[in-house]
Design brief:
CATH topology of the largest domain in chain A: Dihydrodipicolinate Reductase, domain 2
Largest interface: A-D, 37 and 37 residues
Largest sheet of chain A: 7 strands, mixed
Keywords (chains A, B, C, D): NAD, Oxidoreductase
Family (chains A, B, C, D): Belongs to the Gfo/Idh/MocA family.
Number of strands of chain A: 16
Number of domains of chain A: 2
CATH class of the largest domain in chain A: Alpha Beta
Catalytic activity (chains A, B, C, D): myo-inositol + NAD(+) = scyllo-inosose + NADH + H(+)
InterPro entries (chains A, B, C, D): Gfo-Idh-MocA_inositol_DH (IPR050424), Gfo/Idh/MocA-like_OxRdtase_N (IPR000683), GFO_IDH_MocA-like_dom (IPR055170), MI/DCI_dehydrogenase (IPR023794), NAD(P)-bd_dom_sf (IPR036291)
EC number (chains A, B, C, D): 1.1.1.18
Strand order of the largest sheet of chain A: 3-2-1-4-5-6-15
CATH architecture of the largest domain in chain A: 2-Layer Sandwich
Oligomer: homotetramer
Distance between the termini of chain A: 27 Å
Chain lengths: 339, 339, 339, 339
C-alpha cells in the first residue's frame, strides 16, 4: 500500500452504514472515513462524529468532495443508480452494498457506464465471498476435490423480519446472496428459477409467504435449492452443502463453545448477519481498501456484472414467485470487459 | 409374551432374507425360524441350515405349514401379492419387506383382502420407524416441540448401485422410504410429487439419472425435498431435517468415534443400510414377533394401508420423472378399518 | 445355537436385576428366565412375574435348581463370593454384574476356584466392551491406526448420586469401569493409581469429595486420567479419548437428533447408563447366552481374572484417595489358565 | 481514536516479528510501522521494506526514536528485560510477545520498574484472551452460567517441533499459555504444579519427553490438567473444557467445512497457531493500538504482573518436571498497582 490513507466517503447512515463506519474507523488498515452523507443529516452527523468525519446532507457532495478517494454506498437500493453513475464518472472506486440496483435494467446501465469508463470501479458487497469457510469451499470446488459439482443445498434463516418485509424482499434482500454464492462457487450463470412454498408459519406476519423454497438451475446443469425462512425464530443461520460427484462439503455448521447444561449439549446460534459474517465484512473492506488505494477493485470480489446478474436472477425469482412457474433468466451478452 | 416361541416361516433367501434369518435366529427373543422357502432351494437350504430350519422349494408350502405361526416375506416385490393374499387367508401375521407390492392396484387388493378378513395381519418393513433418532423426531413433532412442521429436507445416498439399477428403482426402492417417513412423521398423506435433476454424475452408470431431487407436497401443506443419489461414492447416508415454526431437528448427523489423524478430524461414514439401520431392524423384528405371538401386528409399524399409500406415491413419482410435471397422487378412500 | 433355550436363573431383583429380567425376557434370543432369587421375595416375585419365571427367597435354591442352565448375578457385590463359588462348583456359566467381589482377596479366591475347576465359567459385566464405539476404538488401537497408545483421557459423569453414596464408591462403583476399559483397550495391567481433587461441588452431598481426578499408570507406560464427577447435574456422560503416536480417537461424543430452537443448537444428554449403554448390555447378554448354551463364556468379555485385576486397582485407588499418595497395584501372578 | 496514526517500532524480525509487521501494515487500523530493529539487519530490512518502514541494527535505536509512539517486542525472550526497562523509562506502551522475560526474577524487575514509573505500559502477548471462543467461555464463567469452576481439562498439541526444542521449552513456550489461560479464566493464581508423562512417542526427537501431562492447582481450589504434545503429527490443536458445578463448556472443538469423501466425514485440523489464532492476534493488536494511542494498555490484555505470574508458574513447572514432585509456586505480594 501507499503511505497515504485511503479517504473514504460513506453514503447512507442507517444500520448498515453505521456498522461500516465503525468498521472503517476501528478495524481497517490504511483507510479513514472523511465524510458521511445522508438526507437525514442528524443521522449522518451521529455516524460521522464517532469517526471524526464530517456530515453532509447531500450524498452527491460526498461523491464530489476532493478529499474523497473512494466511496462506500450503504443507502437504500432504490437510490444506488445515480450515485454509482456519478462515482463512475468521477472515477472513484465504490464498494456498494447489495443490491447493485433494484432491477436488472438499471444494473445494466451501471455495467455499461463502467464499461464505457473502461475501468473497474464498482464492487458489490456480497460478503460471503470473504467468509473463510466459503473461500475454502470454493477452493475445493475449483480444485475438483469433490468431483464436478451437481447440487447445492442452501439454507438461509433469519430469526424475524422488520415491519414491512415482503415476499419479494425475501428474494431481493435474502436469496440474492444465494444467487451470488451459486454463481461464484460454480463459475456459472443462473439459467432459471422456480419458487415453491409450504403453508406459511404462524409466526410469519400477515401477507408474508414464509418459508419458501427457491430452486435454481445453472447454465452448467447444477441444481440449487434454497430454503429461505425469515421468521424461523431461533436465530440467523446460513448453510450451503455442495454435492459433487465424489463427495460433499458443508459450510455453516454450528460452531462456538459446546456447553453441557440442564440435560442438553450444544451452543448458541448466531444472532444475526453481523455475528455470523463480521469477519467476512472486515476482510472484504480491508481488501477493498487495499485495492482502492491502487485505484482499483478487488478481483476476488463481486463486480458490476455480478450485481447485474444477481438482479436478473432476482427478477426471475419474483416472477416465478408470482406465476408459480419456472422462469428463465434473461441476461445480456457478457462484455469482454467482464470476461 | 406367551411361553411358546413364535415359529416363523421365511420366504425369500436372498441377501435380505439371509440377513433376517440370522436376525431371527440370533437376536430375536421368543421367536425361531422353522422354514425357509425359495424357488432356489439350494439357497433356501443354506439359509435354513444356519438357523436349524427346513428348506422348501415352494413358498406356499411355507405359508400352509401347520407349524408356521407367522411369516416374513423377503422375496422380490413382484411376487408379494399372491403370498400376502394366501397369508391373509390363512390368518397368519406377516412382516413383508417393502414394497408391499410393486404397484398401487395390487397393493389396494391386499388392503381390501385384509379389510375383508377383518384383522390386521400385514406389516410393511419400513424400518426407519424403529430407528431411535427417527422415533425421537416423531415424538418432537407430535409434541409440537418445533411448532407445526413446514418443511422436511431429506438426503438419501448410497455408495453405488448394483448392475441393472434403473431411475425408476431410485423411486421404488429408495425414495419409497422417504415417502413412508414423511407420511409417518407428519401423519399426512402425500398429495403430489415432482422430480428434477442436475446433470448426472460421471460415476452414474449409462442410462441412470443420478442424482435426482424429488419434491413432495403433503395434504397438510408440508413441502418435502429429497435428494436421492445412489452413486455418491463415499458411503450410505440418510438424513432428515424437519423445519417447524419454532425450530428444526436433524436426524442422521455423523456419529461414531472422532479421529484426528493426518491433518484431518472426523469419522467413518456408514457403509450400507445394515450398518446404519441394523438396530432399527432388530427393534422392528422384536416388536413384530411380540405382537405376532398375540396374533396381531405392531401398531407402531407400517401396515397394509401404508404400503398401499407408498406404492401410490411411487407411481406418481415415476410418472413425474417421465413427464417432468408435478403429478398428483390418487388414493382410494381410506377405509375406517385403517383409521 | 442348539435348539434348546438357555434357562437362566437370576439372583438379585433390584433395579439392575429387574432391568436384566426384562432384557432376557424380551430381547435375548435363545434364552429365557426360569427363576429369580432375592431375600426380598416380594421383590423377586414382581420381577419373576413379568417374565413368567418363579421366585425364590434363597439365592442358592436358584443356583442348585436342576432347570437352571446359567446364572445372572445382579445382587450387591458383598454377597457375590459365595454365589460365584457355588456356581463354579455346580459348573454353570455365570454372568456376574461388576464388581466380581468387593475386594481383591475374595476375587482371587474366585479366580483360584475357577482355575481349580479347570473351566471358564465366570464373566463380569463390564458392558463397555460391547459398546460399538468402544469396540471400534479397540480395533483401531489393535490395528495401530493411531500408532502406539500414549494417553487416555476419560470422563465419567453422573447427574446425581443416591443417598449414602461415598467417595470410595466413586472408585469401586464408577471408576472401576475405566480401570477395566484401560486394561482391555491397552492389553496392559494397571501399575499404579493416584487420586487428586479440586474443591468439591456445592451440589455434592455432605462428606462426598466430588469431582475427583484419578490418574492411572499402566505396565506399558500409558498414562490414563479419569474425571469422575457423580453430581454433575446435567446427565450421564462417558467419554474416552485415546492419544496415540500419530493420532487420537474419541468415543462418547454427543449424538442424537440436533435441534435448533430458542437461540440454541444441540441435543439431549443421555440420562443414565441404561440410556447410554442399553445396546451394549443387549449385545453382552446375547453373546453370553450364545456362549453359555455351549457351556462356556464369551471370549470377548471380561473374565474372572479381569474382575480380580479391577478389584486390585480399586483397592489401590481407595488407598490413594486416603493417603493422597501414588499407590502401586499388587497383582498375583497371572495363571496360565488366564493367558 | 485520535486523528494521528500510532507509529509503531518493532523489535525482532524473526517469524513472529515478520507476521506482526504484516498484521500492523495490512490489517490494523490507526497504526503504522515506522521502524524494525534486529541485530540481523538484513532480516530487519526485509521485514521493514514490506511495510514501508526503516530498518535498524540496534533495537535501542528503535526504542529511542522520536517518531516511535509504541513498541512491539518479538525478539527472543532472553533479551526482553533491557528492552522493556528502556521502554518503560521512555514511557512508551509496549506489546511484548510472551514470555515477558524468561524467569520470574527478571520479570519481577520489570513489574517493579513499571510500578515505579506509575503507569501501565506493558502488555504481554497472550493472544488467547482475544479468541472469540475463549472470551465467551470467560463470560460464562464470570456470569456463573456453569456454577463455580471446578476443573479445566486442557489439550495443547503441535504437529512437530523445530530442532533444539527441549522438554523445558514445552513448559516455557507452550504450557505458559495454559498457565495464563487458567489464571485469566478463573481470576486465581497458580498455587502448585506437577508434571507426569507416559512413555514418549516414537516421533519425539531424542531427548524430548513428549507428551507430558501438567497438573495445576489454583489458589481457589481448581484443578487444571494440561496435555502438552508437541509432536502429535496431525496438526495444531488447542482445547479447553471448563467443568463447573452445573455444567461444562468446551472451546476449541473442530470446525470448518465438513466434508464427506472416501468413506469418511470430517474436516481439516488447523495447521499452526497462526491458522488457529490469527483472528485473536488481529483483535489483540487492534485493541492494543487503540489503547496505545491514548498512551495506555488494553485492560482486557495480560499486563506485566500476568507475565511475571506466568514466569513463576513456568519455573515451578520446570522444577516439577525435574524432580517429579508437586512444586509450589512462590509469588511476590501483588502490589496494589496491579489490583
Amino acid at each position: 500500500m501507499s503511505d497515504q490513507d485511503l479517504r473514504i466517503g460513506l453514503i447512507g447512515a442507517g444500520k448498515m452504514g453505521a456498522d461500516h463506519a465503525v468498521r472503517i474507523h476501528e478495524r481497517i488498515s490504511g483507510a479513514r472515513l472523511v465524510a458521511v452523507g445522508d438526507p437525514d443529516v442528524d443521522r449522518a452527523r451521529q455516524v460521522a462524529d464517532g469517526a471524526a468525519a464530517r456530515a453532509e446532507h447531500d450524498p452527491f457532495a460526498v461523491i464530489d468532495a476532493s478529499d474523497v478517494d473512494a466511496l462506500v454506498i450503504a443507502s437504500p437500493g432504490v437510490v444506488h443508480e445515480p450515485l454509482l453513475l456519478a462515482a463512475i464518472e468521477r472515477g472513484v472506486p465504490v464498494l456498494c452494498e447489495k443490491p447493485l440496483t433494484p432491477d436488472s435494467k438499471s444494473s445494466l446501465r451501471v455495467v455499461e457506464a463502467e464499461e464505457a469508463r473502461g475501468k473497474h470501479l464498482v464492487q458489490v458487497g456480497f460478503m460471503r465471498r470473504f467468509d473463510p469457510e466459503y473461500v475454502e469451499l470454493k477452493r475445493m470446488l475449483d480444485a475438483g476435490d469433490l468431483g464436478r459439482a451437481l447440487l447445492l443445498h442452501c439454507v438461509h434463516r433469519n430469526a424475524s423480519t422488520p415491519p414491512g418485509f415482503t415476499s419479494q424482499m425475501m428474494i431481493f434482500d435474502s436469496v440474492v446472496h444465494e444467487f451470488d454464492t451459486a454463481r461464484w462457487l460454480l463459475d456459472q450463470e443462473i439459467a432459471a428459477v422456480s419458487v415453491r412454498w409450504p403453508r406459511s408459519s404462524a409466526a410469519a406476519p400477515e401477507g408474508l409467504i414464509d418459508p419458501q423454497v427457491v430452486t435454481v438451475e445453472t447454465t452448467g446443469g447444477v441444481l440449487v435449492d434454497v430454503e429461505i425462512f425469515v421468521n424461523c425464530g431461533f436465530g440467523y443461520q446460513v448453510r450451503c452443502e455442495a454435492v459433487g460427484e465424489h463427495g460433499t462439503a458443508l459450510v455453516g455448521a454450528d460452531s462456538g463453545p459446546v456447553v453441557h447444561h440442564g440435560g442438553r449439549w450444544g451452543g448458541n446460534v448466531t444472532a444475526d448477519f453481523r455475528d455470523r459474517f463480521g469477519t467476512a465484512f472486515d476482510q472484504e473492506f480491508q481488501r477493498w481498501a487495499g485495492a482502492a488505494r491502487q485505484g482499483g477493485v478487488d478481483p476476488a470480489a463481486a463486480g458490476a456484472w455480478d450485481g447485474y446478474a444477481a438482479a436478473a436472477a432476482c427478477e426471475a425469482g419474483v416472477l416465478a414467485q408470482t406465476t408459480g412457474a419456472r422462469t428463465e433468466v434473461e441476461l445480456a451478452d457478457r462484455p469482454g470487459f467482464y470476461a
